[in-house]
Amino acid sequence: MTAGISGTALARQFARAVLADQLIADELTRLALIELKYRGESPVDDAAALLGAILSIWRGAAGATPAPFSTRALLASVPPPPDTHRMMVLLVDVLGLSALEAAKTLVVGSEHAEDLLNEGRSKLTLARQVSAIIVEDEPLIAAELAEILREMGVTVAGSAKNMSDAITLAQTATPDLVLADYNLEDTASGGEIVDAIRSFHDCRVIFITGFPEQVLGGDIAEPDFVIAKPYGMNAVKAAVAQCADNMASAALGEK
Amino acid sequence: MTVSEKRLVKLQVLLTDSELAAIDDWRFEKRAENRSSAVRELIWLGLKLGEISPQQLDDFLAEMRKL
Lengths: 255, 67
Prior knowledge:
A: alpha/beta; five-stranded parallel beta sheet; 12 helices; globular
């Protein structure tokens, strides 16, 4: 688990990333907090418990035909959560829960935890074509990230080491996704660079950082996913696959 | 004359498409000035109903909140 961030903040950010919708994710988080408080469960500031409550509310909303203007009507219009395999991978590889903690959060038997995780990892495919750029000042890490992305089928348009290179690259490549290191040698942080890119081009963002609390507590626009350093290949893959899913369902919603 | 309140609060509300359509229908039927005033009038009407017919309001609420 990432140190230094409150469990509530962590769970809320995770819900935002999975739902790809800040407003609805925050509403779900509020409802889950009330639910936990109502049940008298403490400590409330436990990311796994809070995510479990968020998921149970989210799952419970599906298929209902509730009264207009009720909270359930609102929840019924939220797209269903990712399947259990995918959630398992996101909870373990991106959020850093153990397989057992994740199984508990998802309310599945602990004996299935490893199988679900492995199956989820093997099923990580892109729901649509994705192009990406990398913002990273360590050439070796940039090359390694590019390799992971290409292996998944992502088109890597290039990598940049600083603000001006990144802007130029984003302008020419108009990527779907920016994978950025947060702390760069450059005077501008990865956050500032991403903010600058987002001011002219709408894209998904994954931050890779040794200090996740810096990203989640900062003033910059919120990323889709935050991956803690030292990162694992599985974390990058899971976050990218979920971004692709969210892009695909956003495109469906616009039709 | 009452002194006007200093602070205005922006309230963000999530609605489904059909709920928004219902508000807009009401707005046109009742000739409300705009969507925001329609929402404010509906809120006021809800509060008013609670004053003049608290039992009926509770019945409506229970129906709305039931699973």
